[in-house]
Each structure stands twice: as C-alpha cells, then as structure tokens.
Amino acid sequence: MSAASKRPPDERQPSCGGSMSASAPAAASRRSGAALAAGAAITALFAGTAVLARFWTPHDPARISIGEKLLPPSLHHWLGTDQLGRDVLSMIMAGAQTSVGVALISVLVGAACGVPLGLWAAARGRLVDEVVMRGNDVIFAFPALLLAILMTAALGPGAVNAIIAIGIFNIPVFARVARGGALQVWSRDYVLAARVAGKGRWSISLEHVLPNLTGLLLVQAAIQLSLGVIAEAGLAYVGLGAQPPTPSWGRMLNEAQSLTVLAPTLAVFPGLALVSFVLGLNLLGDGLRARWGGGR
Amino acid sequence: MPLLAIEDLRVSIRGAQIIRGLSLQVADGEILGLVGASGSGKSMTALACVRLLPVGAHTTGAIRVRGESLTDAGEARLRQIRGRGVGLVFQEPMTALNPLMRIGAQVAETFTLHRAASAADARRRARRTLEEVGLGGIDGIERRLPHELSGGQRQRVAIAMAIALQPPLLIADEPTTALDAISQARVLDLLVGLARARGMGLILITHDLAVVARITDRIVLMREGSIVEQGAARDLLLEMRQPYERAVRRAGKAAAEGATADVAPLAAANIAPVATANVAPAAAADSASAAAPEHAGGGDSIGRPGPVLEVCGVVQEYRGRRRSLWHAAAGVRAVDGVSLSVEPGEIVGLVGESGSGKSSLLRIILALDAPREGEVRLLGKPFSGIRGAALKRRRCAIQAVFQDPYGSFDPRWTVERLIAEPFHLLDPPPGTLERRSRVAQALAEVGLPAGAAVRRAHEFSGGQRQRIAIARALVTRPAVIALDEAVSALDGVVRAQILELLADLAARLRIAYIFVSHDLDVVKSIADRVYVMRQGRIVEHGPTASVLGDPRDPYTQALIAAAPTPT
C-alpha cells in the first residue's frame, strides 16, 4: 500500500562482464537444468532402491556365512562380502532403506511442526513471533549432531530415536524458512486484498502464503534430507542409530574401518553410496532453487 | 560531431526483439525527452548506451560517444566511459545507493574509483558536488546513511554521483517517478539547472509526458522498440495530450448520458437484478441486529440521505525511534484528527505528497488498522472498532483497488478465483455456477473477455491487471471503493482508459470512490470533491474545481505549482 517504492516491471540485472552474447545465461540455465535432472535421477535411484529392498535383495542381508567371508566382487556377489560373509550389495540396498526412511520421516516431522510454527509467527507477529523465534534460537544454539548423540544416548539407540533427534533439529530450520518467506508474502498487496475480502489470518496463511512457499520449502526439504542422511549415518557410525540386524551405511563404515588394510573395498562401497546420495540430494536442491529462485 | 550517436540499434533478449532499429543523436547541451509506455524499450536504450544491458541481451548497431564506438570498447574502457563520459541516474534512489555506506563516502568513492583524486581531495570534491545538487544546507549530510534521507534527497545524492566526474552526457531513467509531486518538480529543476549550467547533454527517460513537457528541447516518442515520432517538445506535446483528456471527457459525458437519459447500456441492464440479489442477505443479516432496512450495497434504488462513508476525528500514531535508551520513543502522528465524508455515488479525491498520511488513513478506512482515536462509519453504522462476523458483514460495502498491478494478485490463483475472493464476505457465499456467472459479468463490466477467467494474472498487462483489480472490487457491489494510487503505476494512454472505465462505472452503478493519489492531474479529471492532506491533517477541502483552481491553503498552492503541466 505504500505509495513510494515500486520496482520497475523490467528487472535490470546489469552484467558486469559486459558480454553482449546470449551464451552465458543460457549456459547457466542449461547447467541448472542438468543439475536438477541429475539430482532427481540420483535421488530417484536411491529412493527406488530403498523401496525395492523392502521386497527383494540379491541375498538376505542378514545371512551370515563365515565360509564366504571377505570375498572380492564377483558375479555371484557383485560387491563382494564382508567379514561375516554377508552380501555387501544387499546390505547397501537394505541400508538405503534405513537411510531414506530415517531422513524422510525426520524431514516430514520437522516440516509438519516447523512450517505451521513459522506461519503462525509470521501471521501473528509481535509476541508470538518473538517467542517462537527465540525458542528456535535456543534449539539452534546447540550443535545439532552433538545433541542428537546426547538424546539417543539418553533415550537409547535405535532408528526411531534417531528420527526423533534429527526431526527436532529440522523444526527450527523449517520454522525459520517458512516465517521468512511468509513475512514477504504478508507484505504483498494481494494479502491486503484478501484482508479487505474479509479473510482471517489462518485462511490467508493457508490459501495465499503456504502455496507461495512450496518452492522455498521443497528446496529446504531437499537440503534437510541430505543433512538427515549424513546425520543418520553419523549416528549409526558411533553405534547410536539403527541397531543390528537392521543394516545401515554408517555401521557398515564403522565395521569396515578395522579391515581397511585387508579389504579396502568394504569401506568404499557404503561410502560411495552415502556420498552419491548426498550429492544427488544437493544437486536436486540447487536445481530446484535455480528453478524457483529460492521461492517467490 | 554529436555528443551521442546511436545508429540502427537493435537489441534482443532471449530471442525477443526489444529495440528494433533505433537511430538517435544528442548534441552538446541538449535536453532530450525519451518518452514511451512501459515496455517500449526506452530503458533498454539507456542501458545500451553504457553497455549495461541484462545478461542474455544481444546487440547490433553502433553507439558512439563523441565519435568513439562503444561496441568495440573493452571492459576497462567502458568503465571509464560510465562515469566520465556518461552519467546515469535510475528510478529508485534507494536501490541505487549502498544502504550501509555514508553519503559522503559514496560520492567520494566515485572520484577514487576513477582515480581522479586522492582520498582527502575526493572528500573535498564530494562535498562540493553535494552542495551543487542542493544538499549543502543539510547538517552533516556526509555522515548520514541513505535511509536517513527522504526520497528526493536520495535522488539528489544519486545525481551527485552521476555528475561527479563532469560527464558531458547524463542519462536519467525515470528519475522522478518514485517521488511525490513537490520533490519531483525540485529534482527536475535541479537536473535542468545542472544541464544548462554545465552545457551537459541530458536524456530524460519517462512515461510521463507532463514531466518532459516543461523542460525538454526535443522529444523522442518510442513504441515497441522503435521511434514513432520525434520533434520539438511543444508541438509534439499538444498533439499527444489530446487522447488522454479526450478519453476522460468522453467517459464523463457517456456516464452523464447514461445516468440522466436512463438509456441503459448493455452492462447496466445486466447489473440491476444482481445488485439487489446480493444486497438482500447482507441487509437481512443487518436488520436482525439493528433495525436498518435502508442498508444497501450500492444499488441506486434507495435515495438514503446520509453519507456512505464518514471519518470522524481519526488519529493514528506509530511508535517512533528511540533517541537513546533513556528517552521514551516519541510517537509519530501519521493521521492527526482527520474527518471526511463521502456521499453516495460521489468521487472524492485525497491528495498529498508521500508521507502525508494518505495510506495510513486508507488502512483505517478499510479497517485494516484500528485507529488510535476517532471512528469510521460506513452506511451510517460504525465500521472501525468492530470485529469478527460483524466486521465481515460490513466489509461487503467497501472494497479496494491497490496501486501495484503486479503485487495485487496471488501469482498462483486464476483470475476467476481472484475476482471471486470477496464472495467470502457473503453469507452464504454463492455456489459454483452463480459465482462463475458473476465473475464473467464483472469481467464484462471492466471490458475483459470472459476467457480471462481461467488465466493467471501474470498473463496480463499492467492495465489489464488493474481492470481485474477493479472487477474484484466490484463483484460484491460495494457502496464505496477505495482506490489507492490505482492508476499511478500505469502510463499515459492506459491510465486514461482506466480513468474512463472508473468514471463510467461510478456513474452507472452509483458507486462512491475515495480516490487517493499524488497526481493532481488525475484527481482533477475524475474527482467531484478533493481533500488535501499534509502531515496527517486535512488542510483544505471542497469541490475539485475550486480547490485545485483557486487554492487557499499555501500548501495546496505549492502542490499545484509543483505539478508538472504542459502549459
């Protein structure tokens, strides 16, 4: 409603390079398109693997057969076997299930609590805003992984507690992102128009604010997923994540550590899986961000 | 040798032709007005002159500054030319300045960047330049930050930076569009004074003919990337001014005919039954709480005597900044005891420079903010200070159109959903079929095709969007519509069309407007009565002709004197 500042319709972004060709931005947009495609493909691959592992793996990932221990990759065991003779490929596939499951649920938990909090803070302002955001600051003040370790140590190790621990740290992230985006939307004239049309805070938040934040929130979700995957692996690595026999990349890395000299491939494959999944999620997040410009 | 010569300039961005073969010359000391509607390529021309086009732009043609080709110049040479050869001033002075850098340092930086002076020398020269743009009188101007200055002062700083290195050519891209009438006139005077005093060439880019009329030697008119007309300012202006005034005059006449002869135009015939149909539930609900059978949503059926909107002694205060930890924050009175009234079907103008409290007042009138003191009455009943269902019921009678045709619509909603949003106020809201037909009707009333309903707002031009905004305001048949700078973001011809539409709708549907604007020309063309607002108070009010024709208050006189006029 301010009479003063209005941006001109033609957004100017002067190029400092002074290049007069069309190649640079086109290349940039191709690059972000490629990143999005690659990220989506990798993410889909791991998600698909996780679903597949629920029904089928080449071997039973829990079956111990000492006679077949530490086999190198072969036709029968594509990625070899570990010190107990378990099939590494099957374990990685089953581990993907744990990894995706823990990260996804903890992101959903974080979004389900954080987004409404952020919307609420933005819609009410003043005291509510202060309380919610300072509460967030309190959670932010603790190093996330450290407190997750503390929590799982207190509640006992296990996948469910890992979900809770990681999920709690996703809440302030989503609350903050949602609030920031929502404040921007609240300053728009169409929100004024909605208020003139008699809409209350909640219907404006749900009908106008939230739909305009989906891009922003999806980008954040992809980033939080990748952090969740790392956090889950980290917890499992120190023995606070999913417990045996539930397979987990973090614990595979831990177990392979002592055998690095004997069987170096044992640590390479779960490590590769972890790195490429996280890379894929980050590419996906960057691609989405480029497409939506960090949300509107 | 001309100062600036552009030959057959063509610019395309991602395949879209923005400028199609433009040739132009500017002589030393000449003041040239480059005029065109938004999107006509005038800003792109300016940016092309200093090779600052957006990424992805493809340029052909020749641009020469004093005979030196810019198309062949390297980046280092270009940086020298920007600043030393050509100065630039943009529309938005806030974004042109670094918000964290003190004014003195920002201007001095211009000298040091171009290695024109030592640090101490740069500071001295910066002070002199600031004096030259009329900021010398402000205490400690060099130590201030951009947000501590007014819009006009900021634009002066931007001008100081542009002229610091004494460039022979200054390009000002909509330098006054973001300013109010009085600052506008002063900044224009400054630009012209500088150009004349220094013999500097000046290209003034604007969509506002009135701006260039007063001060330019020559006008170049652009449309869709090419020059459609050019010539001496006065001749061209008289010719171009016509459609705008004609349009408004025609609208007034048509409306008058429609009202007196009662020869119902097509739309008016369709409207009557709907108006009564939609008023009924609201009236029924209201009469339950208070016996007021004359409550109407704006139909011309009832000749109720009282005003539709009354504002009585409204005060609004915002908490100011604390001067220190020990001082209590002083309140800023944005609205200071304002009273006004709007009769049924009347168009009331509210004018004043930016910061005069117009927008704060409007927020109170629309019950978006509660007033600190005073009361707003709508259709004779209190509107301020009520909440919940009662407020929702009353809101039916007042709707709004906002300034920014780009920000007024949720980008994700279809036009039908956008226009239907105020139906939320009706109890019960109309069903799908009725909603659809009433949206189609509203679209027809504002002159948009029915097919527009399924599209999204970004597919429309600025003028069309403002029509959608008007349709949204009309759809509940309010008694009064508040228009906040509703045509300020539009350029000449489109503005005339929208004003014509508004005048027509007001007369046909007997809707009252409260028309907020800083543009006196616009208010003069449409309002029956005018209130002049300054520093939160109404300083003068009365019939438009007498207030704007023969102002008594010195502030109104200053406003009128400052307004750029072609004559």
- Class by helix and strand content of chain A? mainly alpha
Strand tally of chain B, please? Answer: 20
Q: Count of DSSP helices of chain A?
A: 9
Helical coverage of chain A, percent range: over 70%
The pLDDT mean of chain B sits at 78
Broad shape of chain B:
globular
Distance between the termini of chain B: 34 Å
SS class of chain B: alpha/beta
**Poorly predicted runs of chain A:** 1-23
Strand order of the largest sheet of chain B: 6-7-8-3-9-10
Strand share of the residues of chain B?
A: 15-25%
Q: Give the count of helical stretches of chain B.
A: 19
The fraction of residues assigned to DSSP E strands of chain A is under 5%
Largest sheet of chain B: 6 strands, mixed
Say what oligomer this is.
heterodimer
Approximate helicity band of chain B? 40-55%
Which outline of chain A best applies? elongated
User: In terms of per-residue confidence, which ranges of chain B show pLDDT below 50 for 5 or more consecutive residues?
Assistant: 251-303
Order of helices and strands of chain A: HHHHHHHHH
